Amino acid sequence: MNSDNETLIRVEDLVMHFPIYRGVIRRQVGAVHAVDGISFDIKQGETLGLVGESGCGKSTTGRTILQLYKPTAGHVYFRDKDLVELKPEAMRMMRREMQMIFQDPYASLNPRMTLRDIVAQPLMAFDEVSGKDIDKRVGELLELVKLNPDFAGRYPHEFSGGQRQRIGVARALALNPSFIVCDEPISALDVSIQAQVVNLLEDLQKELNLTYLFIAHDLSMVRHISNRVAVMYLGVIVELSDRNELYKNPLHPYTKALLSAIPVPDPVYFETHRRTIMQGDVPSPVNPPSGCRFRTRCPIADDGCALQKPDFRQVKPGHYVACLKV
Amino acid sequence: MADLLLNVHDLETRFKTPEGVVHAVNGVSFNLSQGETLGVVGESGCGKSVTMLSCMRLIASPPGKIVNGTAMFKDKDLLTMSQEEIRGVRGARISMVFQDPMTSLNPVMNIGQQMAEPLMLHMSMTKEQARKRSIELLELVGIPNAGDRLKDYPHQYSGGMRQRVMIAMALSCMPEILIADEPTTALDVTIQAQIVELVKRLREEFGMAIIWITHDLGVVASIAHRVMVMYGGYIIEEAPVKELYANPRHPYTIGLLGSLPKLNEDGHTRLYSIEGMPPVLYQKPRSCPFSPRCAWVSERCWNENPLLESINNGHRVACWADTTDGRELA
């Protein structure tokens, strides 16, 4: 295997259930099946897009990979080291390698800390640089995300949404990580600002050889930024493939429905394309449907889909799908 | 020309804030015909919501104040009507759907009570009539078991269903104008597509005019007949939907369309990004508010604010530059 294609992250049968407790003695009465057995890998330097409706487990997947939740079952390998098995202190040291950028740039920055303190926090937590060099490093990081280093003494409320998201990016980059989970980094931003942040993320990836897990519900933006895309539905991955293959030749009915729902910015397109509108909402992950989880909304489901869980299998090189009808 | 329903002229709205007076809407004029869907596009803070809220007299005053303009709804000025008259218009003849269906429904009243309110108030229905009509309306917007679900509270509905309820309530008195303020922004794409299709179907059944406020150029392309683009409290471009997407003329519109990923993108192209950010106007600008971010900016733009002028049938633009000079956006 050459170094370009080296696998950085390997997720194996990852399960994350959140228990539900009820009654005086807090007996467990059930569980939210947020992530229910998913496997995929992310190669060094690539961007894997993760899409799906809200509540399908995208963010939980990102957070469980980073061990922000203790997974119920399964393994997450980072450069062949199983993060699930690591001792807390060893895991803490591993965290330098993996960072996160959050959705809401208003909620993810402490309003009472200056820009310098926010960005310096990870440096201090790991004693990366000595006291007097911190300001220099913070300045470098701010320049890297195209913010004026003179702003270091300001507070988050003095910045716009796009600028705040840059602060979040600078903080994530402080420890020279190799892997970043981008959890809907642009969905809270205005249209003209979204492109700024996406371009920044792409530039940084090239410059620093970063690997991204890019979580989003905006399918056209995911297509733009990702190398491969995984489609998630109710805790499971239903399709995973190279980006062009997925968008040109979607196989799973859920992927097809998602793609058909993209609001295309072209009025002529709507005269020639009939949209297939998916009915209903995502069912509750507390009691997911038996068999194939998508069957309750699937246009081509039949009785068999309720009985058998579809395997997540390779149908073409690099194109995986979980559907009994494909 | 189809019958004119709403004619807004030279509307100006300002807000007093501790930092100064914010000029949110700076002389906006537009009209809306019967059965037409007008899309209003712009970023947050560009004045699109405030324009519509001003027309409905829903601006909290203070701090807000409508300082100038008229909004003729047929032959009556909404801005000078008595409180009693405007209450008869709001919800009955012009109704609104808001962005966040969770905060715009009352969490401690069940859906049935909330739906019955406008029906009993505006249509003088009895409780029983209102109940029957509510069930019909919920069925119309595609809520299953409507009769049973009237007893449910908003938190028992999903986001998409709550937005359907909002639409049903907005349509309950058969309004002539429906103002939808970012009605699908908080929803998933799949649910967004459902709502857009629903509104299109209802538009055919009821024949109402719609003002659809959004920042999503994709959604507007699929539903509007005519689109106006707002920036810094001004309408900077307005055109029939196909014309606008085929021949955008204002640098801001061109930039917005360029910043979207292309539908059939194969290779890896870079997105065009409009640098900088939208302005907050503490005084009425003398220059074009877009000039600090504009790729076509020239001396004149800094000294004179361009007026919205017609360039061909139905296409109006406020810009000094000739953006058809074949320049490629970097």
Q: If you had to describe this structure to a student in words, what would you say it looks like?
A:
The complex is a heterodimer of chains A (326) and B (330). Chain A contains 11 helices and 12 strands. In chain A, strand 9 and strand 10 (236-242) form a beta hairpin. Chain A is 31% helix and 25% strand. Chain A is globular. Chain B starts with a strand and ends in a 13-residue tail after the last strand. The longest helix of chain B has 18 residues, at 189-206. Chain B has 11 helices and 12 strands. In chain B, the strands form 2 sheets. Chain B has an 8-stranded mixed sheet with strand order 6-7-8-3-9-10-12-11, with helices on both faces. Chain B has a 4-stranded antiparallel sheet with strand order 2-1-4-5. The chains are: A alpha/beta (326), B alpha/beta (330). Chain A binds chain B through residues 53-54, 160, 162-163, 190-196, 198-199, 202, 217-221, 223-224, 244, 257-258, 260-270, 275, 277-279, 281, and chain B through 43-44, 158, 160-161, 188-194, 196-197, 215-219, 221-222, 241-242, 245-246, 255-257, 259-261, 263, 265-266, 270-275, 277-278.
What percent of residues of chain B adopt helix (DSSP H or I)?
Answer: 25-40%
Structural class of chain B: alpha/beta
- Look at the helices and sheets of chain A and give the structural class: alpha/beta
The overall average pLDDT of chain A, rounded, is 89
Per DSSP E runs of 2 or more residues, the count of β-strands of chain A stands at 12
The number of strands of chain B is 12
First-residue to last-residue Cα separation of chain A? 31 Å
Question: Largest interface, per-chain counts?
Answer: A-B, 41 and 42 residues
Helix content of chain A: 25-40%
- Spans of at least 5 consecutive residues with low confidence of chain B: none
Low-confidence stretches of chain A: none
Proportion in β-strands of chain A: 15-25%
Global morphology of chain B:
globular
Biggest beta sheet attributes of chain B: 8 strands, mixed
By DSSP (H or I, 4+ residues per run), the number of helices of chain B equals 11
* Radius of gyration of chain B over all CA atoms, rounded: 21 Å
Give the mean pLDDT of chain B: 87
Strand content of chain B: 15-25%
